[in-house]
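Allow me, if you will, to draw on your knowledge of protein folds for a short while. I have a record of one protein: its chain in single-letter code and its fold written as discrete structure tokens. I remain grateful for any guidance, and I place the record below:
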Amino acid sequence: MVIIVLVIAKIIDFFQVSYLAYLVPVAMASILTTVLINSEIAVMLTVFLSFLVALIFNNDFSIALASFIGGLVGIFSVSKVNQRNDLIRAGFNVSGVLVILILGLTLNMPFGGWLIILWSILMGVLNGVLVAILANGLLPYLENAFGLTSSVKLLELSNPSQPLLKRLLVEAPGTYHHSVIVGNLAETAADNIGANSLLARVGAYYHDIGKIKRPYFFTDNQFGGENPHDKLSANLSSLIIKSHVKDGVEMARENKLPESIIDIIKEHHGTNLISYFYQQALEDCKHENVEEDDFRYDGPKPQSKEAAIIMLADIVEAALRSKQFNKSNHNRIEGMVRELIRAKLTEGQLDESDLTLKDLDVIVDSFVKILTGIYHQRVDYPEKLLKEMKRADRSDKDRDK
């Protein structure tokens, strides 16, 4: 990005026209660095690039000032990107600020220089337009070339019309709705501990896509029907359950999902024990030598806060859905959540994720708040009111006839 900006500056300098210097799109590099890396590095790059551009234009530090201020505006404008159009809006913000700044810098020109002032202002406007065009155009190429995942890419992947999410909804609807709830839990918890909440939400949407291959082998897609595991050995059932992680990674690579999402798919079960089938194997007299490792996921353990949060949200949501107790009871929900997270901590599943005990406490509170909202106690309608509602409904149908 530095090379691109400096090449543009050299081309503009070739024409030896003073006001063309305001056309150099330093803010483009500032915006893309913020979106792809972070705002701190973007500020450092903007300072460095502004001075380099000033040197090209014969040490004209009014150009350095305009470049620096425009870059800062660009950084501020994309500090929270919600859609690709935010990059265009950032370009317009840069245009607006540059117009005001250029007007202030050129007001001391002698009378008769109004034409240069107008051209300088026009360059400021075109600068923002050029910034928006280049930022939008270069972003996907930079993502692919350097293996980076921007918030814009994640937002696009969160769209329900994405092919994998559409398949998940149609072929494994139970898993889809489970993933949406896990996404809500993970996003809230990640936001509260300062992790990447957007990555947590999108990663949760895709964490179980491997279940598309054999959806009927997972309880969230059986809907009370026949369970195919009843006809299989515990070892074979365990292999099928474990395979959804490998299948998910393969499907993610085929659909060119970012590595950050693929890592979450790999890590969201860590090396957890598939305890149901392990206990079944122990009870089965045919299996005299039962190896615990055969009933564990292949891992690795979560390597990031986002992957660890998704693991915890996945376990909590699945457990709460299967438990038979009054789910509107806040204390029961909190007790269950704390016990499940404590178990994962004790097992060492969170050792490589950089989560602190304070983070875990915040995660518990976040999960409990969301789950209590989902399973809140609903007010029963009085019988008299229900009868009136039915009577009104019948009268509406008669009127329609």
Remarks:
- The chain has a mean pLDDT of 88.
- The chain has 17 helices and no strands.
- The radius of gyration is 29 Å.
- Residues 2-148 form one domain.
